[in-house]
């Protein structure tokens, strides 16, 4: 059974709201929605001023739920994120005071400015959806999605994200500069840095949970699974690649493809769902050989090359 009219209407309303927050970037909005419905974390890497933070704020405002923001810096401690147990003298016991991570949508601004120790505090939450403080496990709200931003051009005072953490991000996205016409509209119109505040809430967080459950029911034919696995295998055997896409990447790509199908009103995955998402889902997880990097090869180019040479399945069961 395909998506209901109410589902399609709800998704369209969220799209329209996000379009009011950031102009001229429908592809970025689409991929952000895919990650939301797939329940996957997103790393937004771009130069300052392109609207990364504003877009996430707009998404949280449109979808309801609990939103928290962390401004990362070298002074940030792991307990500043996860929370801390505080001794209560009257009750003679320790009481857990939750941190900002107890949210449905968490924005970690400039995540690469936090120390590696603080970054590692997010690993458990990203994968297992709970945090452990003083030996006690605390479940995170459902859903829990992390949107992290980082600046690719500033290196002073920044810390590289570890490979294990990068692999836990479903997608790595770049919004990019607006085109000339869009920027002209921004300059001459009323669009401002606070445009996200004009976004209306059009959904409840329970609606997002329901749509995430619908994603799991989207059909993927065996031929689609074989096509995806051949792409993943191609990233591992490419001569310029030292470490290819992981099994977690395979699962992420299939889940994202299912979410893409749902956004298009389909209850089945087609090869284009996988082709269009291969770069944002796979490239940031790969490590190239030094010689390949020195020759100018990028992970994005590798993924595109692998997808181009992988035979697309012609006949699918629906």
UniProtKB/TrEMBL annotation:
Q: Please list the residue ranges annotated as the AAA+ ATPase domain.
A: 38-179
Q: Which InterPro entries match?
A: AAA+_ATPase, ATPase_AAA-3, CbbQ/NirQ/NorQ/GpvN, ChlI/MoxR_AAA_lid, P-loop_NTPase
> Domain of life of the organism in this record?
Bacteria
| Protein name from the UniProt record | YeaC2
The source organism is: Thermobacillus xylanilyticus
What lineage, starting at the top, does this entry show? Bacteria, Bacillati, Bacillota, Bacilli, Bacillales
